[in-house]
Amino acid sequence: MSEHALGARGALASPEPIRARLPRVNLSQYRRFISPLVIVLLWQAASMAGLISPRTLAAPTTILASAWELVLSGELPRHLLVSLGRVASGLAIGVTTGAALALVAGLSRLGEEVVDAPMQMLRTLPFLALVPLFILWFGIGETPKIALVALGSAFPVYLTLFAGIRGVDPKLMEAGKVFGLDRRGLVRHVVLPAALPSGLVGLRYALGSAWLSLVIAEQINATAGIGFLINDARDFLRTDVIVVGLLVYALLGLSADALVRAFERRALAWRPSLVKG
Amino acid sequence: MSDNRAVSVRSLTRRFGTNTVLNALDLELEPGSFTALLGRSGSGKSTLLRTLAGLDPAPADAEIRVPASVAVAFQEPRLLPWKKVWQNVTIGLPGSGAKARAERALAEVGLNRHTEAWPATLSGGEAQRTALARALVREPRLLLLDEPFAALDALTRIRMHALVLDLWRVHTPTTLIVTHDVDEAVLLADRVLVLDAGRIAADIPVEMPRPRSHGDSRFVALRRRLLSELGVEAEVIREAA
Ligand SMILES: Nc1ncnc2c1ncn2[C@@H]1O[C@H](COP(=O)(O)OP(=O)(O)O)[C@@H](O)[C@H]1O
Ligand SMILES: [Mg+2]
């Protein structure tokens, strides 16, 4: 095995430095950013030429300036914190509930019968359609907003984790049993680690779903949060602020995804693709 | 145990639907003996082994006695991919000092440099040696091997044969190896059993000093006899010879 690895490295040893010296490789990494950059430049030029009215879409430079102002004035951080708080509470509730239900349904037949059928029925419902009911139930304060985020994130976690638990290789279960693991040991050392990759995929879906829920929830009569910032800007025709809000949503989504990926790399270090790649 | 049998099975019958796989089977193994179990594919070898391992429930009318400590190695290594090699070896072992024991067992199978590796990085032979270490670290009095080398290449298999014999000499567990490879059976075991129609159809002692060679005339004769017990036609043997 080690000889094989050495052989492979030896074979690669000569072409590798040559390829590294060629600038073409580096260029291709940046090439994919060229076209977005050109679009932004064209946008800027069109705005300066008066082809795009600021009421339709503000110029990139205006957007940057507004973003900077919003940061300095403390307005953006304040709204950001409110939105983050909603997502964090909603996710905490949703992920915990989804995971708990998946464990109940995944680890016992009775649990599956009680939990899985209603979950499978509910998941066909587009959860955003529940907004009117949520407003009736929870009013227009923070509760319906957090509840919507929680609902949106619970289902992906439930579905993927349940599937992961049920997909455990029975041969590994048998090996665990024959080497002396009791039921608790099997769950801890075999079932849960086996279901983790699938559960983490679910967590990433849950994050995406949580941001979407937040955007919708913040349209409900909010007095703070990124959604409020956007709605407020709409009333004053401030397209620059609206775009800043959209950019913040995008950045939040990206960083949350990056966070889960980083966690995956640590928690799933054993996976063949990560081990060898 | 009142007598000196390490394993004692009486009238073990096992059915799957209408398919009677084991039919009032009797089996006895001497303590510390090395026995090979041959049989055609589907003859019930794994079923018998699984019953001895306690993986399948024993039928109420059968009488089965096995030692308290039984360890198994399967055809596939069945390592937990999310546990490092040494953690796979200690799985289910209680108490502290488990890691040191795992390291000793891994050194015995020649894997001392892989204790911290992930199973995904092991070759087939290394993974199967880890599985052997996992079985041995429990100091089993009965070691059950279900075609453990069937998936390995020929050269690795030869090395594994030597390793298993070494480990058996040092630890002296009663060993039962299931195989469909007649050569493997004759090479390793003191006694070869042939499972057919749900019973032990042949029980043949192997009286040859180790290390054994394929060229030995006793080896050739025994091999021929076992093949015919397994129902391989005489012409096929003659052609192959
Ligand atoms: N869990 C099971 N359910 C139904 N049939 C089974 C089961 N396990 C084994 N069998 C049947 O029992 C027979 C013997 O199987 P097995 O012991 O695995 O054979 P071997 O290991 O000798 O190849 C086969 O016909 C197989 O299909
Ligand atoms: Mg088998």
TrEMBL record, chain A:
It is found in: Cell membrane. Keywords: Cell membrane, Membrane, Transmembrane, Transmembrane helix, Transport. It holds the Pfam family BPD_transp_1. InterPro entries: MetI-like, MetI-like_sf. The keyword Transmembrane helix applies. Gene3D superfamilies: MetI-like. It is a multi-pass membrane protein. Residues 76-260 form the ABC transmembrane type-1 domain. The chain crosses the membrane at residues 33-52, 87-110, 122-140, 146-165, 186-207, 241-263. PANTHER family: ALIPHATIC SULFONATES TRANSPORT PERMEASE PROTEIN SSUC-RELATED, ALKANE SULFONATE ABC TRANSPORTER-RELATED, MEMBRANE SUBUNIT. Belongs to the binding-protein-dependent transport system permease family. This is ABC transporter permease subunit. The lineage of its organism: Bacteria, Pseudomonadati, Pseudomonadota, Alphaproteobacteria, Acetobacterales.
UniProtKB/TrEMBL annotation, chain B:
The keyword Nucleotidyltransferase does not apply. SUPFAM superfamilies: P-loop containing nucleoside triphosphate hydrolases. SMART domains: AAA (SM00382). Keywords: ATP-binding, Cell membrane, Membrane, Nucleotide-binding, Translocase, Transport. It holds the Pfam family ABC_tran. Residues 7-222 form the ABC transporter domain. It comes from the Bacteria. GO terms for molecular function: ATP binding. Belongs to the ABC transporter superfamily. This is ABC transporter ATP-binding protein.
